[in-house]
Design brief:
- The chain is built from eleven helices and nine strands.
- By secondary structure, it is of the alpha/beta class.
- The strands form two sheets. Strands 5-6-7-3-8-9 form a six-stranded mixed beta sheet, sandwiched between helices. It has a three-stranded antiparallel beta sheet with strand order 2-1-4, with helices on one face.
- Helix 3 packs parallel to helix 6 (about 145-160).
- The radius of gyration is 19 Å and the shape is globular.
- Mean pLDDT is about 85; it is low at about 70-75 and about 250-255.
- The structure holds adenosine-5'-triphosphate.
- Adenosine-5'-triphosphate binds near residues 38, 40, 45 and 59.
- The site of adenosine-5'-triphosphate (ATP) has 14 residues, from helix 1.
Length: about 270
């Protein structure tokens, strides 16, 4: 059996003696798209940062994170690429967008002109029209939604086998959201894996085949997406599915409405 693309065993995160994420164990198969759902403050972004090797100062981590069969520390393949929730902090305001995108591409062996062409192609894949116009621009010249798409292009440029996308569609209009979801779907072709963090259950259902649900720093439910939508078990998951289906009704009619939502979003 092939090794999972990502194996997390007993990942625990704390700050000053306060346990923020309790030991988590989960894995992602090669090519799998998994949603990480949960209330605000449940520990999703800290988990994402741990997978990308970019925990904030003062957060200590325990447990193990292994990519593939395990590669040497510092190889660049021993961490996930991360699309951050806040795109402004992920980019350097003093360096043009094109040069920032070229850095990982040049490290991967692209010539200067090929890196420029690939950077433009990745921007287009992330939903930026006329990407050549964006390459010389600085972050201060872009809208929040455009910055988010540049971050997506940057994550794609890193070429890692695992991508963690932390609420990548939050600041985007509905049309661009669809473009980004399509880009993330394409990401997983060729065996690359995605952990998609979101509050948007419909987006998660359209993109992912499995879901993990966090509450107060713990995974409280994990299931195939279709099962989670039709038969949520944990009270938080039940509320999430009810909210997405517009029903707080736990009756047979409520269950039928949830089932209809499940069918609609899973289609
Ligand atoms: N740098 C930090 N230092 C100390 N505590 C932190 C730090 N970052 C986050 N926390 C705390 O860790 C917990 C989990 O935060 P996290 O940002 O992972 O939540 P989240 O599930 O991503 O929330 P949201 O959906 O709002 O983004 C929260 O209680 C938060 O206050």
């Amino acid at each position: 059996m092939p090794a999972p693309a990502l194996s997390v065993t007993d990942l625990a995160l704390s700050s000053g003696g306060r346990q923020l994420v309790h030991p988590l164990t989960f894995s992602l198969a090669a090519g799998e798209r998994v949603a990480l759902l949960g209330a605000s403050g449940s520990g999703k972004s800290l988990t994402a940062a741990a997978l990308a090797g970019s925990l904030p100062e003062g957060i200590s981590a325990g447990g193990t994170i292994t990519f593939g069969a395990g590669s040497g520390a510092g190889s660049g393949k021993d961490r996930a690429a991360l699309i951050r929730q806040d795109p402004a902090t992920a980019l350097n305001p003093l360096v043009p967008i094109g040069r920032q995108l070229a850095i990982p591409l040049r490290s991967a062996g692209y010539s200067r002109p090929d890196a420029k062409a690939e950077a433009a192609r990745l921007l287009a894949r992330a939903g930026i029209g006329e990407p050549a116009l964006f390459l010389p621009r600085y972050t201060g010249q872009l809208s929040g939604g455009q910055l988010q798409r540049v971050c997506i292009a940057l994550a794609l440029a890193c070429g890692t086998p695992v991508l963690v996308a932390d609420e990548p569609t939050t600041a985007l209009d509905a049309v661009t959201q669809n473009t980004v979801l399509e880009t993330l779907r394409m990401w997983s072709t060729g065996g690359r894996s995605l952990l998609f963090i979101t509050h948007d259950l419909a987006a998660a259902a359209s993109l992912c085949t499995r879901a993990l649900v966090m509450e107060a720093g713990r995974i409280v439910e994990q299931a195939p997406m279709a099962d989670l939508l039709r038969n949520p078990l944990h009270p938080y998951t039940v509320r999430l599915v009810q909210a997405a289906s517009g029903s707080a009704d736990s009756s047979a009619e409520g269950a039928a409405a949830r089932s209809a939502t499940a069918t609609a979003v899973a289609a």
